[in-house]
Amino acid sequence: MEPVVVTTKEMLTQQKSKIIIVMPAYNAEETLEKTYHDIPLEIVDEIILVDDNSSDKTVEIARELGLTVIAHPENRGYGANQKTCYDEALKRNPDIVVMIHPDYQYDSRLIPYIVGFLEKGICDVILGSRIRTRNEALKCGMPKYKYISNRMLTFTENIVLGQNISDFHSGYRAYTRKVLETIPYHNNSDGFVFDTELLTQAVYFGFKIGDVPVPVRYFDEASSINFSNSIIYGLKTLLTLAKYLIQSTKLWNYNLFSKSRGSHLNY
Questions:
Q1: pTM of this prediction?
Q2: Using alpha carbons only, how large is the chain's radius of gyration in Å?
Q3: Helix axes 144-161, 227-248, angle to 10 degrees
Q4: Is 263 a domain residue?
Q5: pLDDT in tens, 119-171
Q6: For residue 22, what is the domain's CATH number?
Q7: Is residue 264 part of a domain?
Q8: Residue 89's domain spans which residues?
Q9: Which of 69, 117, 189, 264 gives the lowest tally of CB atoms within 10 Å of its CB?
């Protein structure tokens, strides 16, 4: 009997998961279209862009591309943007939600491979890792201060959370619907630490997290946290880990780990 050979194209056509892409956007007019054209549209059911009151033409370009656009009437912050992203995605009853920034920093061509780990039940959350090697990350333009802080925070997070993830701070993520339905993400920050809080919650609620290497691009138009905000972000990340440890030892209950999704407070 001849062996059965399944090509990548055939694998893609066999996928039956409902996949929703969400893009938290802010002033992405120069990079949105390039990001969009790299997405393998044949496996995606819908792309939702949530604009956080951009001052440029992000909304107009997104609508011209045929994306579903949700526009915040005022700037609410990166975390608040993601809350709207996931709320809108869950309304559509997806199997998998992929979050990618529309700043062309991450390679969106890899979406079929990333979601494959979720479809096979290997993981519940997949992160796109920017740091396959130190040399590669720095050659791609990652600032040295950002590389060092990333390594220190990721090492600490792995120890505290019992994981083995190479990049806890990637903006390229995929979640199963169950993760987003379980985690009380509305209790999270409206700022940049939202990402750390969500991953910490995923660990607390027992979900499996994995990562895959992805090429990354650093250039002027790509979104990035400046140095002072990076310091604040790092301190808030450490505070989130402290809350996790205290919650795990049952010394205190934080709203961050409450199963109630109704509150927007984080005690």
A1: 0.87
A2: 18
A3: 0
A4: no
A5: 999 999 999 998 877 777 677 777 788 888 889 999 999 999 999 999 999 99
A6: 3.90.550.10
A7: no
A8: 14-257
A9: 264
